[in-house]
TrEMBL record:
Keywords: Hydrolase, Magnesium, Metal-binding
Start and end residues of each Nudix hydrolase domain: 1-130
Cofactor(s) it depends on: Mg(2+)
Native organism: Alteribacter keqinensis
Family to which the UniProt record says this protein belongs: Belongs to the Nudix hydrolase family.
Protein name: 8-oxo-dGTP diphosphatase
Cellular-component GO terms for this entry: cytoplasm
Length: 162
């Protein structure tokens, strides 16, 4: 079992992102999520984290795959990735300051712009997970803080019940 969850909340052509104030990816835009607590399933963990970080109670959420990290040759764990869709008419005014950071809606075009350097490393998996029907696993390889390679593979069926 992986230790973390992340969720990208989609409203029409927009994705709700968090500019984190602490921890890994401080100062970068990322999805919402966090550590899975003891006794929680990944789904329970992501739903709790979304509620804590955004105040939203999600009902339509889909596990789209996993991301794992290898840093300087050592396995460094990973996260379950979820996509949630909320109706376009849902009112959630942003930007809004929360304990974890600033939440704001960003367009898909903004997210995939090659000039955008203010993002966590999700640009390698998010487009596929937003558009694809199949689940994938992504393995990120870092040398220190430098991302040197990303492998993508279909997610094994054993994980499909997450």
């Amino acid at each position: 079992m992986l230790n973390f969850t992340i969720c990208f909340i989609k409203r029409g052509n927009e994705i709700l992102l968090l500019n984190r104030e602490k921890g890994s990816w401080m100062g970068r835009w990322n999805g919402v999520g966090g550590k899975i607590e003891p006794g929680e399933t990944p789904l329970q963990g992501v739903l709790r984290e979304v509620k804590e970080e955004t105040g939203l109670v999600l009902t339509d959420i889909d596990h789209k795959g996993n991301v794992t990290w290898v840093i300087d040759g050592a396995d460094y764990g990973g996260m379950y990735v979820y996509i949630a869709e909320i109706p376009e008419q849902t009112s959630y005014p942003t930007p809004v300051k929360r304990e974890e950071g600033i939440l704001d809606w960003k367009t898909r075009e903004w997210l995939i712009d090659k000039e955008n350097t203010g993002l966590a490393d999700f640009m390698y998996f998010l487009p596929q997970m937003l558009d694809g029907e199949n689940k994938h696993t992504y393995r990120y390889y870092y040398e220190g803080d430098l991302l040197v390679n990303v492998d993508e593979n279909p997610l094994e069926k054993v994980y499909s019940r997450v």
